[in-house]
Structure formats: structure tokens, C-alpha cells
Amino acid sequence: MALEDLKRDLEAVAGQPVADLQAVYDRRSEEPPLGTELVSLLADPQLQKPASWMLRRHLEAGHTLSVSQAKPLFRALSGLQDWETRLQVLQSLSYLPIGKREVKPLEAFLRDCLESENKFVRAWAYHGFHELALQHAQFQAEVDRLLERALEDEAASIKARVRNILKQKLKHQR
């Protein structure tokens, strides 16, 4: 029943100002199944945008998902079309465990995002590859090449994000 209530709340605020979405989040943020419910709603094209925004907000607030709870998110990646939804998911990757079975769909999603017209999505796709390499070391050499190439070929705004990734990487190596 809680999922249906959440679905109705998100339908009511879809397309509304972020403040309305934040109010729904504030009201529901301490409900134990909220993270998994939001992940399940990513499969619904009408609710992807508000669900992805709220999921990112929930993860940034310190809530976590296990590998099994995050699994449906990785299955939903190929169906995420809206650039804002893709961006929210990309920005959430720092907080998500990436299981072995989720690597292939995530890698395909990230490669697709690197081809996006939207610079924010492209910039955060590089960040996504960095997160993938942090959890699955076999990607590190390729990610290093991707980041180098981005510093040569990408727009200034994307280069700035890549430089932030490289700074993070240096901190992580120390």
C-alpha cells in the first residue's frame, strides 16, 4: 500500500516545482522502504524524473541500498530516456553498490551517456566510469584513458568535472 501512496504522491508533483517534490520527500524520508520503492518506480516512464530526483536526495541524505536493493535500478537503466533522469541516476552512482551482474548494464548506460548531446550527462558519465572503476578495478586503465581523452576533446565544463574526478582519484590513492 505504501508504494501506491508514493506513486500517487509522485504523480501529483510530476512536472511541478522542486519545492513540491522536496515536500513529498520530507514527509516520507524516514519510511524504511523508501529507497527500494523509488528504485522500483524508475521502471515507470511517467515517474522516472521525480523518482530519480527523490532517490538521489535520499542517498545524499545518508540512506543506503544493498546490492540486491539496487539491482532493479541497473535493470532500468536502458529505459531511462529523459536527460534529467539520467543525470540524477549518474549523480547517485557514488552512493550505490555495483554488483558483478550490474556491471554490463551500467557500462552500456555509461557509454550511451558519453554520447549524449547534454554536457551535464556527458560530464557525469565520466564520473560514473570513475565510480565503476573504484568498485571494479578491471576498468581502471580504460577509465584513465577516457579521462585523458576528455581533457583533450571535451567542452570546458566537462573538463572541469574531469579535473574534479582526477583530484578525487589522487585523494583516493593516498
From TrEMBL:
InterPro entries: ARM-like, ARM-type_fold. It comes from the Bacteria. This is HEAT repeat domain-containing protein. It comes from Gimesia benthica.
